[in-house]
Structure formats: C-alpha cells, structure tokens
Design brief:
The protein is α/β, with parallel strands linked by helices. It folds into three domains: 175 residues, Rossmann fold (3-Layer(aba) Sandwich); 71 residues, Hypothetical Protein Ta0175, Chain: A, domain 2, CATH 3.90.1070; 141 residues, Nuclear Transport Factor 2, Chain: A. It is built from eleven helices and 18 strands. It has an eight-stranded mixed sheet with strand order 5-4-3-2-1-10-11-12, sandwiched between helices. α1 runs antiparallel to α9. The longest helix is centred in the middle third of the chain and has 17 residues. The protein is elongated. It binds alpha-D-glucopyranose and magnesium ion. Its EC number is 3.1.3.24. Its cofactor is Mg(2+). Belongs to the sucrose phosphatase family. GO terms for molecular function: magnesium ion binding; sucrose-phosphate phosphatase activity. It catalyses: sucrose 6(F)-phosphate + H2O = sucrose + phosphate.
C-alpha cells in the first residue's frame, strides 16, 4: 500500500506508556510480539497510529529506549499535535482548529494562583497544552475550581487527569479522541475510512478514544483506576470495548483476536516455523520469520541442526548474492558458514532482532521487492540497517515460502556496528 494513499484494512490507534510500551517488562517481550505480528500481517495494508501524551521531545526519547515500530501517524501532546509519516510532517489544519477560544497566557495566569499545581518540565509545555502535576486527593477539586475560573475568562478548555498525577489543560476541541475524530473525518472525505479501528489505552487521557463512534476498544489489563472508573460510568454496556486480561501490547493482540480484526498469533509465539505458514502468500511474514530464526539461533533457543542451514540454502538460488552492510558481497555459502559460526554466540545475553516498516512491491510476475529496517539489540548496543530484498515465488506453493534472490544492507546513519564481524546478516 502506498502509505496513506489508499484505504487501510485496519487502523490501530494506541497509547504508548503502559499500553504499547510496558515499562515493567525489561525484555520488552510483549512489544516485540506485537511488532512481529504487525510487520508480518498488517504493515502492508493497515495503519499504525501512536497517540501519546508525550511531547515530540519525550516521544523521540522513548523511541531510543524501546524497540518501537515507526507509526504511519503520530499524535503527540495529548492529541494536540498530529504528524504524518517517518518525516513527521505536521497537520496544519489541526493547528487551526485548536486555536479557537484558546489563550495560553490566560491559562498560565489563572493556574499560577493554585499552589497545588506543580508545572511539568519545559519540554512538556506545548502551544496547545499546559501540563502540571497534582496530588490525587486534590485533583478533583482543583479541576472544578480552575475550570470555572477559565470559563469566566472566556476560554473553552478541557482539563484531563491521567496516571493519578498528571493534569493537562488543552483547548476544548483537542484531546486524543478529538484528534482521532478529525482523522476519521478527513479519511471519510477522501473516501478511505478504514472499515475497522481499534483504540488502545490505559489511563485518563485515553478515555475519549473509546467515545469515537464505531471504534473497537481495549483497555489493557493494567489500566489505571481513573480509566476503569470512567468506563464503568460511561461505556459499561458497549460490547465494542473490552478490558483485556493481558498487559500492554499483549492486551492489544488479545483484542485483535477478540474482535476478529485479522491474524492474532504473533510469529514470536510460534516455535516451529513450519507451523506458521499463513494461508495467503505474505512476503512480509517471510522476512519476520527469517530474522526470528536468526535471533533464536544466536540465542541457542533452538537445537543446533545442519538441517536448518540446508533448508535456508534450498530457499535461495546458487547465484544469490547478499551484500553485508560492511559492503562485502557474500554468496549463500558464505552466509550459511557465518550462520554456522554464530550459533549460540548471543546465548544468555539480551539479544533481540526486529524489523520495522516492511514495504512490499510486486515488481514483476512472482518477483517481490521488499524494503525494511532491521534492528538488533545486544546488551546496551543498538544497531540497525536498511535492507532491500528480492524474493521470488516462482513455481513455489505458499507452504514453501519464497526464494531469496538478493539482499542488500547498509547501516542506518549513526547506528552502524563498531565491529562489522558480529553482524551476521
Ligand atoms: C505524558 C506527558 C505529560 C502529560 C501526560 C498525561 O506523560 O509527558 O505532559 O501530562 O502524558 O497526558
Ligand atoms: Mg498510557
């Protein structure tokens, strides 16, 4: 799919902290499960939207800390900033909407009269968002009084309490829900409203997401009291909203299955790769499957067997060439030798592999061009390469997967390996 130019099959709109990202999961396993599912079965025809309370500065920090995918649309600062694509192009139309009945200076002036309000970091103060910390037991009263005062000053604002500590003041037309409604309207006008949207959240600022007509919703198992309370009061009888029994990204996967939105078994949950052959021929799935094999092989999570290497050899042409990011061209024989040497070399280490932004184009009959970023973490070091792969499905049945004709990798700027030799492929 040419990103954003045609109608998506599914649109997932997810909060980040404690929803997509589990800060209590040091190995990030639920996030990596989601990543593999998304890149294998959804990336090519669906839309991933992150909707976070974080400012662009803190959002970028989180991306460096956690193995996160790149979304198609990023909504930041509690629905006050919408950007598109990797280059994060801002939506100027949304800024216009937010300027109505909004005056930051008046908000600053009135809030300064409350000693209970403690201003958050400078990075979190944005053109259409003013944020404070306030104690749980003071929150309700402060919100009421402040709201009356701001109305008297002629403003129409929205005050949101999240995570039992954060208080955000935004224009009335802002918020995560309004930002999603704005996107839906825009897609509808362009005739490409996705047939299914799943919203995912854990805290107060996510509540609005669940009010958008037609959406499916999941509150992850670890959702905050304030969201559960909101749900009990406002959405208890809506069968389209569930409270998952699983935490964070695993709760999102659970909801995909519950609402039948598409495949819901992550390739990471399938140990024997031969069981996981999809019914439809999905080149993205082959890429995910191969790099999962690499991770398990190097972590020695699978038994050593020459059969695997022979199998890989059978899935490429004798003339296939693989260009390592160091620039050296390798034959399939060189690659299988490198793989043989690397068995178990990451055993007992925090070594993980994931792919991001797999794009697929059928460039000829049975020939596929794939582009993606491949990332590895080993301990504290993170490395990444941009990869281009040619796959062929000529004379093969779906159960046999694809033949790898060619692969070319180059380091992502600033994320190359110090030592080229421990990047196997
Ligand atoms: C994020 C933001 C913070 C905001 C909170 C709740 O943590 O950094 O400014 O108050 O989300 O929306
Ligand atoms: Mg959250």
């Amino acid at each position: 799919m040419d990103r954003l130019s045609s109608s998506a099959r599914v649109m997932i709109v997810s909060d980040l902290d404690h929803t997509m990202v589990d800060h209590h999961d040091s190995e990030n396993l639920s996030l990596l499960r989601f990543n593999a599912l998304w890149e294998a079965y959804y990336r090519h025809d669906s839309l991933l939207v992150f909707s976070t309370g974080r400012s662009p500065t803190l959002y970028k920090e989180l991306r460096k800390e956690k193995p996160m995918l790149t979304p198609d649309i990023t909504i930041m600062s509690v629905g006050t900033e919408i950007t598109y694509d990797t280059s994060m192009v801002p939506d100027e139309g949304w800024v216009e909407v937010l300027n109505q009945k909004w005056d930051r200076n008046i908000v600053m002036e009135e809030t300064s009269k409350f000693s209970e309000l403690k201003l958050q970091a400078e990075t979190e103060q944005r053109p259409h968002k003013v944020s404070f910390y306030v104690q749980k037991d003071k929150a309700q009263e402060v919100m009421k009084t402040l709201s009356d005062k701001l109305v008297k000053r002629g403003l129409d604002v929205k005050i949101i309490y999240s995570g039992g500590m954060d208080l955000d003041i935004l224009p009335q037309g802002a918020g995560k829900g309004q930002a999603l409604a704005y996107l839906h309207k825009k897609f509808k006008t362009e005739g490409k409203l996705p047939p299914n949207t799943l919203v995912c959240g854990d805290s107060g600022n996510d509540a609005e997401l669940f009010t958008i007509p037609e959406v499916h919703g999941v509150m992850v198992s670890n959702a905050q009291e304030e969201l559960l309370h909101w749900h009990a009061e406002n959405a208890k009888n809506n069968p389209k909203v569930i409270h998952a029994t699983e935490r964070c990204a695993s709760g999102i996967i659970q909801a995909i299955g519950h609402f039948n939105l598409g495949p819901s078994i992550s390739p990471r949950d399938v140990m024997d790769s031969s069981d996981s052959v999809p019914e439809n021929f999905e080149p993205g799935h082959d890429i995910v499957r191969f790099f999962l094999f690499l991770e398990r092989w190097r972590r020695a999570e699978m038994a050593y067997s020459e059969l695997y290497l022979a199998g890989l050899k059978a899935l490429s042409f004798p003339s296939s060439a693989f260009v390592h990011p160091s620039g050296i061209e390798q034959s399939i024989l060189d690659c299988t030798n490198a793989l043989r040497r690397s068995y178990g070399d990451e055993q007992g280490k925090q070594y993980r592999v994931w792919v991001d932004q797999v794009t697929t184009t059928e460039i000829g009959s049975n020939i596929w061009l794939l582009k993606f970023n491949k990332w590895e973490i080993s301990g504290d070091e993170r490395r990444g390469c941009i990869a281009t792969v040619l796959l062929s499905s000529k004379d093969l049945s779906p159960s046999e997967g694809f033949t790898w004709v060619h692969m070319h990798q180059t380091w992502v700027d600033g994320a190359g390996a110090k030592d080229h030799t421990d990047w196997v492929c």
